[in-house]
Design brief:
Radius of gyration of chain A: 21 Å
Number of helices of chain A: 17
Strand order of the largest sheet of chain A: 3-2-1-4-13-14-15-16
Shape of chain A: globular
Keywords (chains A, B): Hydrolase, Metal-binding, Zinc
Oligomer: homodimer
Strand content of chain A: 15-25%
CATH class of the largest domain in chain A: Alpha Beta
Distance between the termini of chain A: 55 Å
Structural class of chain A: alpha/beta
InterPro entries (chains A, B): Amidohydro-rel, Metal-dep_hydrolase_composite, Metal_Hydrolase, MTA/SAH_deaminase
Number of domains of chain A: 2
GO molecular function, one term (chains A, B): deaminase activity
Protein name (chains A, B): Amidohydrolase-related domain-containing protein
Largest interface: A-B, 91 and 91 residues
CATH topology of the largest domain in chain A: TIM Barrel
Chain lengths: ~450, ~450
C-alpha cells in the first residue's frame, strides 16, 4: 500500500519533515519513504491511500499504562492518596473477575488507538486480570504491546496503612514462574506485536531476594523490567529508613539499574540518582498528568534530559489521569516544566515528541523497529488532521500537534502495516459494543466491591 | 423550546444535578427547569429538542481572551518572553490591517463556541483591530461578549527592551474617548449580548494619571475594567522599584481595586495582596496554560480561594495556550495546583467548574443573568457528549467533564436562547470558510510583518 499526500514528520536522524510525502508499506514494514510525486512514479501499480494533506507522525508510544484501570476511570478523584489507593483502586482491582480484565483492556486499547498510541507498556498484569485474555485483547485489536506480568511477594507497602487488597496478593512463585510461563506462551506472538516483561511492584511490595532473582533472570533471559519508583515522598523515605540508601542506590543494590529497566514516575530523586540512571542506561517513564493529579510532585525532567537520561512518556491509569491520550499528555509535559523552571525554552515541542516516539522505542528496546518512519522499520504511523479551527493557522506542525491538537484529531492509525483506525473509526474493535460492555462490567465491579461512586453534588 | 433528556448540572445554590432533566426556554431566558417527565406533561404543546442523555452545563465563561491572537497561533512557541512578545506577538498585532481583526475574531469565536464557551471577556481591542468589526463578529456569531477597548498612553513596558510596536501605540484620547464612543455605540447591543469595558494595558503602558482617570470613569459610568497584572516577576519588581509598592498597593493607589475590575494572571502576588483583593471584591482571571507555557509561574489560586477571592478562568491567546478550549483549561487548573501543594484534594473538579461558570459570571457583573441554569436566567447552556471511550465509565459527570473530556466532546451550544452549535456543527459561522480565510489573513500578516514562521526541523 502506498500512503500519500501527507506532511511526514519522519523522526529520522536528520529529523526531516517531508512535505507532501508518501510511505510505501510492504507486509508490516516501511519499504520506501519520500515525496509523493517520486513514489507514485516509482510504484505506479501500488494500491494507494490518500492522507488528504494530513500530518503523519510515528505511532505514539505510551510507556506506562494500567489497562485494568480503564474500568476505574474517575473512581477516586480529588481524594487523599491512601483513600485513592487502598479504599478505591486496590479494592476495585482486587475484585476483578472473569473477563473484567479483557473488557478493560479492550476499552483502554480502543481509546489509545483512536488517540494515536500504537505501542504501550502495561505496568502490572495481575493474575486476577487474566494475562492471556489481556494478551488476546492486544492480539485482536492490532495494537503493539509490552505486557508486564506482576512481580511481588509482600502484601504491604511502606507501612501497614497501605495494606494490599487480598485479592491482589501474589507469591514469589506466581511472580517468577508466572512471568516465565507467559513469556513462553506470548512473547513474540501476533507477528511479534506482543512482548512479555516483568511488571515489578514498587519496593515495599517486593523483597530484596525476589528483586535479585528477577533482575538476574532479566539479564540471563533478556526479559525486560518495568517498575514504579520514587513516585511519592514516602518512597524516598522508605529507601532511606529501611536501607539507608537513595532510591537509585537501592535500585543499584538489587540489580535494577540496567538498560533493560524502565522506571516510572521518578519524582523524588536527586541529581546523584539521575547520574546513576544516565551511567547505567536505565530508562524513565514520565507521567506528568498522573504526578499532578495525585499530587505526587513534579519530576526533574529537564535535569534528566540534560544528563542524557532516556526519558519517555506515559498516561498511567484512568483513576489518575483520567484519559489515555498521549497528545494531551505531550502538551502538559511541554508546559509544566516551563512553569517550574521559569524558562519558556525548556522542553520544546520537538523534544517532547521525541520523548513520545524515539525515546519510548528505546525504553522498550525496540528502537530498531519503531519510533521513527524509516525504511526497514515497522509500519506504525498516525495521521492527524490539523485542518481544524483549533489548529489553524499552523506553520510548525510539530508545535501545532503538541500545543493545540488532542487525540480527538487523529484520523488514521496504521500498526504493523495494518489500518486499525480510518477516518476516526476503529476497524478492529466495535466501539459502541465495548463501551456498553465496559459500563456493565464497571457497574458489576463496583457492586461486588461494595463501593458507591456518585456525584459530590446532590442528584435530584 | 423544551430541551429534554439531559443530566443537568444546574449550578444553582444547592448545586442540584437533575437526572433526566429538561429546560424550557422562552425567548432568551430559562422559563422552567426540572425533570423531563414533569416538564413534558406541563408543556405538551412545546416544540422539543432531545439531548439524547447528554450532560448539560451552564455555558462556560472565559474571562481572558485575545481574539486577535487567534491568527497568531503558534507564532513564537518555546521562545524567551522578550522574543515572544516584542519580536513576534506585538509585531504581528502591530501589522493588522483592514479585516484581520474581524477574521481573527470569527476564528476565535468559532473555536470557543464549538468547545462550549458561551461568554468571553476580550482583554484589549486595539483600534488597529477595528472595534466595531469585532463587535459585529460577536453580533453575527451569537456568542456573548465583554469587549475591552484598549487603554494606554505609554509605548514602553517595564524597560526599554520591551518597547511597544509603533503600530499598537494609542494615546490617552484614543483610549478614553475611544472607549466612551464604543460604549455608546455597542454596550447592550445584540439583545444585550455585547458589553463594552476598559481593556487596560499593564502598568508600565499606562501612566498613573490615566489609570486614575479611567478608574474614576469606571465608577461614575459603571464601565468595568480588565487588566493584565503581576503576570511575570518583572511586573512585581516594577511596582517595587518605581513606586515602592506591592502589586495590589499600586492597584489600590490608582483606584483599580474594585468589584468592577478583573485582574488577569496574578502570579506574582503575596498573601497581603490577596487579602486586598478579597476585601475590595476585585476579581481574578486565572490562566494556567498561559502561565505555564510562558514560564510566568504558578498563581497561588488555592490561597486566593481560601481568602474568598472570586477567581474565574481564562484561556488567554493562542500564542500562549495554544487553544481556546475551556474544558482542557479546567483540567489543568484542577491538577496543576495539586502538584504544587502536594495535596490531591485542592481544587476539586466541582470547584473548578464553579470557577469556569459562576465565578466567571460574577467577574463580569453578570451573576444575575448567566453562570447557572435557573428560572429567569438567560438561556446559555452546553450539552457535552460523555458517551465516548475516553469518558467511559462515568459516575460523577462533573469529574468526568473536568478530568476526561475536551472541547471536542461538545455537542450542542445554546446562547441567549438560540442554538448556535448542533451535533458539533456551527450554525452561525461557516467553519470551513473562516478556516480558509484565517489562513489567508495569517499568511498575509506574516508577510507584511516580515516574519517567517516555519518548522524547527528541516522540511524536504
Amino acid at each position: 500500500m502506498l500512503y500519500y499526500n501527507a506532511d511526514i514528520v519522519t523522526m529520522n536522524a536528520d529529523r526531516h519533515i517531508i512535505a507532501d510525502g508518501a510511505i510505501l508499506v510492504k507486509d508490516n514494514r516501511i519499504a520506501d519513504i519520500g515525496k509523493t510525486k517520486a513514489l507514485k512514479e516509482k510504484y505506479p501499480e501500488e494500491e494507494t491511500y490518500d492522507f488528504g494533506g494530513k500530518l503523519v507522525i510515528p505511532g505514539l508510544i505510551d510507556t506506562h499504562v494500567h489497562l485494568a484501570q480503564s474500568l476505574l476511570r474517575g473512581c477516586a478523584d480529588d481524594k487523599e492518596l491512601i483513600q485513592w489507593l487502598c479504599q478505591r483502586v486496590w479494592v476495585l482491582q482486587g475484585c476483578f473477575e472473569e473477563d473484567d480484565g479483557y473488557v478493560a483492556a479492550k476499552l483502554c486499547i480502543a481509546e489509545m488507538l483512536k488517540s494515536g498510541t500504537t505501542t504501550f507498556l502495561e505496568a502490572m498484569c495481575a493474575d486476577r486480570y487474566n494475562f492471556s485474555r489481556i494478551a488476546t485483547a492486544v492480539e485482536e485489536s492490532g495494537i503493539r504491546a509490552c505486557l508486564g506480568k506482576i512481580v511481588m511477594d509482600i502484601g504491604t507497602y511502606t507501612d501497614a496503612a497501605f495494606a494490599m487488597h487480598p485479592g491482589l496478593i501474589e507469591t514469589r512463585e506466581q511472580s517468577l514462574l508466572g512471568t516465565l510461563a507467559m513469556h513462553e506462551k506470548w512473547h513474540g506472538k501476533a507477528n511479534d506485536r506482543i512482548h512479555v516483561w516483568f511488571g515489578s511492584r514498587t519496593p515495599g511490595g517486593v523483597s530484596v531476594e525476589l528483586f535479585k532473582e528477577m533482575t538476574q533472570i532479566s539479564q540471563e533471559k533478556d526479559i525486560r523490567i518495568t517498575m514504579h519508583c520514587a513516585e511519592v515522598e514516602a518512597d524516598k523515605k522508605y529507601f532511606r529508613e529501611e536501607f539507608d540508601m537513595s532510591p537509585m542506590e537501592f535500585c543499584d543494590h538489587v540489580g535494577l539499574l540496567s538498560d533493560k529497566t524502565v522506571l516510572v514516575h521518578m519524582v523524588w530523586i536527586e541529581e546523584k540518582d539521575i547520574k546513576m540512571l544516565a551511567s547505567s542506561g536505565t530508562h524513565v517513564s514520565h507521567n506528568p498528568t498522573s504526578n499532578c493529579k495525585l499530587a505526587s510532585g513534579i519530576a526533574k525532567v529537564p535535569m534528566m534530559l540534560e544528563h542524557k537520561v532516556n526519558v519517555s512518556m506515559g498516561c498511567d491509569g484512568s483513576p489518575c489521569n483520567n484519559d489515555y491520550d498521549m497528545i494531551r499528555e505531550m502538551k502538559l509535559a511541554a508546559i509544566l516544566h516551563k512553569a517550574v523552571s521559569l524558562d519558556p525554552t525548556v522542553m520544546p515541542a520537538e523534544q517532547v515528541l521525541e520523548m513520545a516516539t524515539l525515546n519510548g522505542a528505546k525504553a522498550l528496546g525496540l528502537e530498531k523497529e519503531i519510533g521513527s518512519l524509516e525504511v526497514g522499520k515497522k509500519a506504525d504511523f498516525v495521521a492527524v488532521d490539523l485542518n481544524k479551527l483549533h489548529t489553524t493557522p499552523s506553520y510548525n506542525p510539530v508545535s501545532t500537534l503538541v500545543y493545540a491538537a488532542t487525540g480527538g484529531d487523529v484520523d488514521t492509525v496504521v500498526v504493523d502495516g495494518k489500518i486499525v483506525v480510518q477516518k476516526g473509526e476503529l476497524l478492529t474493535i466495535n466501539e459502541e459494543e465495548i463501551r456498553v460492555q465496559a459500563k456493565e462490567h464497571a457497574d458489576a465491579l463496583y457492586k461486588r466491591a461494595g463501593i458507591v461512586n456518585k456525584p459530590i453534588w446532590p442528584v435530584v
